[in-house]
Structure formats: C-alpha cells, structure tokens
Amino acid sequence: MRILVLGSGAREHAIITSLLRENEGASGAGHEITAAPGNAGIAAVVPVVALDPTRADVVTNYAIDNDIELVVIGPEAPLVAGVADSLRQRGIAVFGPGKAAAAIEGSKTFAKRIMDEAGVPTGRATRAGTIDEAIEAIDEYGAPYVVKADGLAAGKGVLVTPDRDAAIAHADFWLAQGAVLVEEFLAGQEVSLFLLSDGHTVLPLSPAQDYKRVFDGDDGPNTGGMGAYSPLPWLPEGFVDEVIDTIAIPTVRQLAKERTPFIGLLYCGLIVTTKGVRVIEFNARFGDPETQVVLPRLVTPLSGLLFAAATGELGTHPRPEFSDEVAVTVVLASEGYPDEPITGRAITGLDEVTDVTVAHAATAQVDGQYVATGGRVLSVVATGTDFADARARVYRALDTIRLDGGHYRTDIAQRVAE
Ligand code: AMP
Ligand code: GLY
C-alpha cells in the first residue's frame, strides 16, 4: 500500500516503524511509506516531504498526485483544520476524523455535551465565560481545583492545584482566549485506552499508562507525556470491555447520530475511581508517548487495521492481538521543558545504543549531527519479558545518549517493576 503519514513526532515515528515491520521477510507487504513533514529520525527510515500537514489543499493535492492509498493523520492540528474532510471528499482513504468529530478533542465543552447525551461516565464540570462564573465554580467544587482551557492548548491548558489563587489566575489567563471549564477532581489511576473506530464500531488496542507531570513522583507542571508503559497488569478483568460498552460505543453512536461520524483513533483518557471508571478527556488521535509502547506489542498488522477503519470495514476485522511482552518508554526532554525548552543542542551517543528503539520526537540533522528542535526530543523504547528488564534497558540507553541540560523521569513503570 502507498501510505502517507502526517506529523513529525515520536508517535509518527512509532507508527512508521510498525508499518515498516510489515515489509520484513520474504512475504513482506511492500508498503511504500512517506512522511510529511517527519523529523530526522523518520527521514532515516522513509522519504519525507516538506509540506505543511495542516494545509488541506496541499495535503490533498499531494495525495492525489502521488496515488496515495491511505493517509494516516498523527497529530490533532490537521484534524481540527479539516484535512481529513478534504481527503475524504476526494475519495482517499484516511485514518483520522473530520473537523466536526475532532472537536471531541478540540473543544472540551463539545466533549462534555457528547458525553452527557450519550450517558458516558465523566466528572461534573461547569463552563465559565467570565471570571466571576469561574470563581463561583472553583468554590463550588473545592480543592484540589481543576481548571481547563476549552480549546486546544498543547498540554498547557489544564491546571490541577490545591492553590485557590493559582486556580483563579489560570482561569483568568485562559478566559482571555475563550471559555474555561472548571471540573470536579477525580482521584485514581489514569489509563489511556485507544480504540480504532470506523464510525460505527470500535476495536480496542492494549491499555497504557502515561506520566503527565514533568518530574519524578508526579511533581511539577503537566506536559505532553514523559513516559509510558503497557500493558497494565493491575487493571481489573473485563476493564476493556466495560470501556467499550459504557464509553466508546455510546460516544461513537452519538457522533454518528449527529452526522459527524468518528473515523480514526478514539483516545479515551480515563481515571479508575473508587466509584468506577470515568472519562477525563477524549483525544481524536493516537497518544504520545503511549503509542510507542502499544504498537511494538501489536501482533496484528497495523496497516490492515487502519485501512479497515478508514473504509468502514472494522465490523468484520478480528480484534487486534498483542504479544505477552511488556513495553516501557521514557522521554528525553530539552532543558526548560515544558515552560521554555532550549533547542538547537547536539544529541550524541545515539549510535552506541543497541537493545532499545529510539523514536525521534523533535530532531533535525545539522552538518551530519542530530540536534534537538523541540521540548520532547526522543522517546526511548524497550520491550521485554518483564518491566524490570525493559526499564533497565531504557535507562541504560538514556545514560549513553547525551543532550546538554536534557532531563527525563527516573520512575517510569517503577510501580509495576517491583
Ligand atoms: P487533560 O488534558 O484533560 O487530559 O488533563 C491533563 C491531566 O490533568 C490529566 O491527565 C490528569 O492527570 C489531570 N486531570 C485532568 N482532569 C482531571 C480531573 N477532573 N481530576 C483529576 N485530574 C485531572
Ligand atoms: N500523552 C497524552 C496525549 O497524547 O495527549
């Protein structure tokens, strides 16, 4: 298949690595994969094209001119910009929802409304358009306070804090750009569950856990994600089926009913509370870094799953199978991330690591040398028979890789390795 992958992060590198694995061996699938715009790590394995993935016209023309049979949209920005709608209008199979359905990620109030209509369990929330409304809701729900920007905020829109003044300041800051949501605080373990959807039916991937805070012990500000592991041995039996029945199917049905079918990856961000599972957020795409631990464990060919979702054929596709191996990833971030990452610094030692895979998140090649171009730079991944073994290999690799001022969490997957 001729496949175009849009995006430039470690998630897209991991998706491409999985697709390329299907090409291996005598009976290889022979996929021709291109990435746009990609990064230096992606460019080392497939051709990359320097086009803006959020430009619907540019992407669509490229796909037509190059006989692309499947477009896989990695990040949220092209989805919210309507790139999937434009491709679909031209009859091109695309894995990723249209603009209207992508609002499930792009607008937290839209997501809450869909959940209300569909009867999906989630925390109570109040939409505030003025600071007075926000303060009233903050005092109603009490500490710890949860205040969220309504729109896309690149991971920076959410504040969870015991400090009332900080909660009010956060609301004040984001009200300048639109509404905010004040939410009930939900306590419990977080789970990221990815479901492939063809607009009618869903198939689950294996659950993962992400580490959102920047420092060890879940300290410091929220980030895009500092590490992840999969599977989650502590989940109760039947958990995935419960999420399918009570969350994913009702949500997908509601979106179909509203004539905005969700075709792509429904990312359920969940909290397992003492009262049951609750949705904290939906995303309209694969999570990063969770993808880096879910896909290496996927035994079923990824291309077949994505194509079946894109073409409305998931109903006849068997449930994806996963290996018994575990996977751990740890993100290496630039100095200053998440506030003001310092970029442009050299990354060395990459050719000295052997028993891990390195998904590039934000890298470029300058004069034959890898340099960091963003906050999250690399995602180092190990699979293994147990978490202790996979962790040891990831952290050994991170000892070898050098990036001045670079930092990473040292406690990823610790709780399952002991
Ligand atoms: P979100 O972008 O909505 O996923 O929020 C980012 C992170 O903030 C989540 O992964 C949680 O760790 C935390 N968070 C968000 N909403 C809540 C909530 N209602 N209760 C507790 N923690 C939350
Ligand atoms: N790791 C969280 C996300 O992808 O949104």
Quick structural summary:
This protein has helices spanning 10-21, 40-43, 56-65, 76-80, 83-89, 99-106, 108-118, 131-141, 164-175, 239-257, 291-294, 302-310, 387-400, 414-417, and strands at residues 2-7, 32-37, 70-73, 94-95, 125-128, 145-149, 158-161, 180-183, 189-198, 202-204, 209-210, 213-215, 219-222, 227-230, 263-273, 276-283, 326-333, 347-348, 357-360, 363-366, 369-372, 376-384, 402-403. By secondary structure, it is of the alpha+beta class.
| Helix content range | 25-40%
Question: Unreliable stretches, pLDDT < 50, 5 or more residues?
Answer: none
Name the shape in a single word: globular
Tally of DSSP β-strands: 23
| Cα radius of gyration in angstroms | 21 Å
Strand percentage: 25-35%
In angstroms, what separates the terminal alpha carbons? 43 Å
The side-by-side strand order for the widest beta sheet comes to: 11-14-17-22-19
What small molecules are bound in this structure? adenosine monophosphate, glycine
Mean pLDDT, to the nearest integer, reads 96
**Largest beta-sheet details:** 5 strands, antiparallel
Structural class: alpha+beta
The total count of helices amounts to 14
Supply database-style keywords:
418 residues; alpha+beta; four-stranded parallel sheet; 14 helices; 31% helix; globular; binds adenosine monophosphate; binds glycine
Describe the 3D structure.
It is a single chain. With 418 residues, the protein is α+β, with helices and mostly antiparallel strands. 31% of the residues lie in helices and 27% in strands. The protein has helices at 10-21, 40-43, 56-65, 76-80, 83-89, 99-106, 108-118, 131-141, 164-175, 239-257, 291-294, 302-310, 387-400, 414-417; strands at residues 2-7, 32-37, 70-73, 94-95, 125-128, 145-149, 158-161, 180-183, 189-198, 202-204, 209-210, 213-215, 219-222, 227-230, 263-273, 276-283, 326-333, 347-348, 357-360, 363-366, 369-372, 376-384, 402-403. Strands 11-14-17-22-19 form a 5-stranded antiparallel β-sheet. A 4-stranded parallel β-sheet has the order 2-1-3-4. Strands 5-8-6-7 form a 4-stranded antiparallel β-sheet, with helices on both faces. Helix 7 (108-118) crosses helix 10 (239-257). The mean pLDDT is 96. The structure holds adenosine monophosphate (AMP) and glycine.
